[in-house]
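A reminder from the course coordinator: this example appears on the midterm review sheet, so study it carefully.

Given structure:
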């Protein structure tokens, strides 16, 4: 009896195990996959970056009948899913999905799976557990990308005989990516500046980036100035290309001084940045424009170095949720300024340099109209070395000359014991030198102004006696003449 019970128990156990097998098999879900490639050509650097593709289920697949049934309530999509599957039909489905995603992306729910690519990961496999039709949308892409064509994935795929996984590695998703090149350019309205012509107008032209479907999260035009320039914040005007109306400060963009960003050489600080607001980067107006044009002015200041290039560099910082990029400016125009000196010498001994000669700059060849800056004349007074640098009157600030203008220099006070040089010297800036020198003397030395001593007889010999004798004779003659005239008058 015990043996029978044992046999029965063993059989029952085997039967239970046998019954469990099909249930276990049915509990193990089938998986379906598709392998994709996204390999960017080395010459197409605008496409380089991180991408994420999301697979949204839009229809169930009946593996017995091969029919699809839409799982999203949208008439255009439902109509597109119905009917025989074909290339034309697939494009209709993609169009319906694209339109719905723009207006109601929540209708697609959570992605069934995602795949990601980068500059190092160029192949990825998408795996799902539910057979169906999937809408493949690029949910993350580099900021330079203007668009990525959407696609469909049928998982599993019917090859005419069986449902199989899909290998898409022969088809490169990079071919679905479109980009726009991004650049920044700058121009200046002049190359040479001076204290009497010190304002430079700069124009920065930066490309827009991204698209309404790939919106930017950051867009900042940065500008870094030499310490010899002073930024005029109130002069900034921002427009889209060809636009008549300017954008509004505080609404469309802000101006941030000492703006920190990551440039091509690492962390950097710009003098200022024009930073676009979030609402502006969500508008179609921004993406419909090709460029953003910023104009502003800067003034030459006392820190500007003579002849040395006064730099002004620019760039564009832009990015989205996928990445942030920096585009350096293609052209950074330099401006220059120059100084002027005068050397005073004894005309009879040109090796002897003279102190205390005073000069002034004029705007006309007759030296009648003094050049003034903020009410101050431009003057120079030679020191013991016989040299002097032109400065603003009452200061030690070197006056900076504009190389495009002509100036006139004249001596206004001579050293004690010397005659005033009455010449008006026409001076054009020599761009090859830090300083242009005033003057032109007979031996060809063109950097000196000659003064000649006041000529008087030397002590000794006749000395000044001739002046006394001559004066006495004149007085005597005058007395005799007066006496004769009085005698004639009395005789009458």
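Designed residues:
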């Amino acid at each position: 009896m015990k043996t029978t019970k044992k046999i029965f128990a063993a059989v029952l156990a085997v039967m239970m195990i046998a019954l469990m097998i099909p249930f276990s098999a049915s509990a193990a879900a089938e998986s379906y996959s598709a392998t994709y490639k996204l390999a960017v050509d080395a010459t197409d650097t605008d496409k380089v970056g991180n991408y994420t593709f999301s697979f949204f289920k839009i229809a169930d697949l009946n593996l017995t009948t091969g029919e699809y049934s839409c799982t999203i309530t949208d008439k255009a999509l439902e109509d597109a899913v119905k009917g025989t599957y074909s290339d034309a039909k697939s494009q209709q489905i993609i169009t319906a999905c694209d339109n719905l995603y723009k207006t109601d992306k929540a209708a697609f729910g959570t992605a069934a799976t995602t795949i990601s690519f980068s500059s190092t990961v160029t192949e990825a496999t998408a795996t799902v557990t539910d057979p169906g039709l999937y809408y493949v949308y690029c949910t993350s892409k580099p900021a330079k990308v203007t668009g990525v064509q959407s696609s469909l994935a049928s998982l599993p795929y019917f090859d005419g005989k069986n449902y199989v996984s899909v290998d898409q590695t022969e088809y490169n998703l990079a071919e679905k990516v479109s980009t726009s090149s991004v650049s920044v350019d700058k121009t200046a309205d002049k190359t040479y500046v001076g204290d009497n012509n010190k304002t430079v107008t700069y124009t920065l032209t930066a490309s827009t980036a991204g698209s309404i479907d790939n919106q930017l999260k950051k867009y900042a035009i940065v500008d870094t100035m030499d310490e010899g320039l002073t930024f005029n914040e109130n002069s900034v005007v921002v427009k889209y290309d060809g636009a008549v109306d300017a954008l509004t400060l505080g609404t469309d963009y802000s101006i941030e001084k000492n703006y920190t960003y990551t440039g091509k050489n690492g962390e950097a600080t710009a003098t200022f940045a024009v930073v676009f607001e979030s609402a502006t980067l969500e508008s179609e107006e921004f993406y419909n424009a090709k460029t953003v044009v910023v104009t502003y002015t800067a003034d030459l200041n006392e820190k500007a170095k003579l002849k040395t290039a006064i730099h002004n560099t620019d760039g564009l910082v832009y990015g989205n949720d996928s990445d942030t990029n920096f585009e350096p400016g293609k052209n950074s125009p330099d401006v220059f300024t120059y100084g002027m000196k005068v050397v005073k010498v004894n005309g009879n001994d040109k090796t002897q340099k003279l102190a205390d000669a005073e000069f002034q700059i004029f705007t006309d060849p007759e030296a009648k109209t003094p050049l003034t800056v903020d009410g101050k004349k431009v003057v120079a007074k030679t020191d013991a070395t016989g040299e002097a640098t032109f400065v603003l009157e009452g200061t030690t600030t070197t006056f900076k000359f504009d190389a495009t203008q002509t100036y006139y220099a004249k001596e206004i006070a001579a050293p004690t014991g010397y005659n005033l040089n009455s010449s008006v010297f026409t001076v054009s800036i020599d761009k090859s030198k830090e300083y242009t020198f005033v003057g032109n003397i007979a031996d060809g030395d063109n950097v000196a102004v000659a003064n000649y001593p006041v000529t008087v007889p030397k002590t000794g010999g006749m000395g000044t006696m001739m002046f006394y004798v001559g004066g006495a004779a004149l007085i005597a003659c005058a007395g005799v003449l007066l006496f004769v005239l009085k005698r004639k008058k009395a005789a009458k």
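The chain has five domains: 1-27, 32-179, 184-328, 339-451, 462-492. Confidence is low (pLDDT under 50) at residues 1-28, 458-470.
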